[in-house]
Amino acid sequence: MRIGHGYDVHRLVPERKLILGGVEIPFELGLLGHSDADVLTHALMDALLGAAGLGDIGGAFPDSDPAYEGISSLLLLERVMGMLAGKGLRVGSADMTILCQRPKLAGYLPQIRALLAQYLGIPGDRVNVKATTEEGLGFTGRGEGVAAHAVVLLEEDGG
């Protein structure tokens, strides 16, 4: 078994979509980034790549490459899953936390969880997605950005 942790953060700005875990959340601000800036999926990919000893998403999908401009992070997640399969690894479980003052995300968490479970190829009860505010503290508390943490357990095929 292998454990990985991922963390990502993106700034909230006008005229961008807010996409978290592949789900578009209605909000007046969205996340700034080279891709779709899906901070949750980015943290998840970093955790997966880290657990597999494959570096991070910056190395796998550099923001200097125009091929990744505006790309769906779910498409990148599919590519990461292919990389894991190539190493004989599969996801055992994933636990994620979104740090976001607003909008309130509780109503979207079941959809995010189900979608990410589908992309990870595991049952929904092996994926957990939580959201929390930071009580007005720090950049997330001031509504300047959104951060996410992810922890994953990878298992070797046949193990």
Automatic annotation (TrEMBL):
Its cofactor is a divalent metal cation. One of its GO terms (molecular function) is 2-C-methyl-D-erythritol 2,4-cyclodiphosphate synthase activity. InterPro entries: MECDP_synthase (IPR003526), MECDP_synthase_CS (IPR020555), MECDP_synthase_sf (IPR036571). It catalyses: 4-CDP-2-C-methyl-D-erythritol 2-phosphate = 2-C-methyl-D-erythritol 2,4-cyclic diphosphate + CMP. The keyword Metal-binding applies. It holds the Pfam family YgbB. The keyword Metal-binding applies. Keywords: Isoprene biosynthesis, Lyase, Metal-binding. A divalent metal cation binds at D8, H10, H42. PROSITE patterns: ISPF (PS01350). Residues 1-154 form the 2-C-methyl-D-erythritol 2,4-cyclodiphosphate synthase domain. 4-CDP-2-C-methyl-D-erythritol 2-phosphate binds at residues 8-10, 34-35, 56-58, 61-65, 132-135, 139, 142. It is an enzyme of class 4 (lyase). The record marks H34, T133 as: Transition state stabilizer. Pathway: Isoprenoid biosynthesis; isopentenyl diphosphate biosynthesis via DXP pathway; isopentenyl diphosphate from 1-deoxy-D-xylulose 5-phosphate: step 4/6. Binds 1 divalent metal cation per subunit. GO terms for biological process: isopentenyl diphosphate biosynthetic process, methylerythritol 4-phosphate pathway; terpenoid biosynthetic process. CDD domains: MECDP_synthase (cd00554). Belongs to the IspF family. Homotrimer. Involved in the biosynthesis of isopentenyl diphosphate (IPP) and dimethylallyl diphosphate (DMAPP), two major building blocks of isoprenoid compounds. Catalyzes the conversion of 4-diphosphocytidyl-2-C-methyl-D-erythritol 2-phosphate (CDP-ME2P) to 2-C-methyl-D-erythritol 2,4-cyclodiphosphate (ME-CPP) with a corresponding release of cytidine 5-monophosphate (CMP). This is 2-C-methyl-D-erythritol 2,4-cyclodiphosphate synthase. It comes from Lawsonibacter faecis. The gene is ispF.
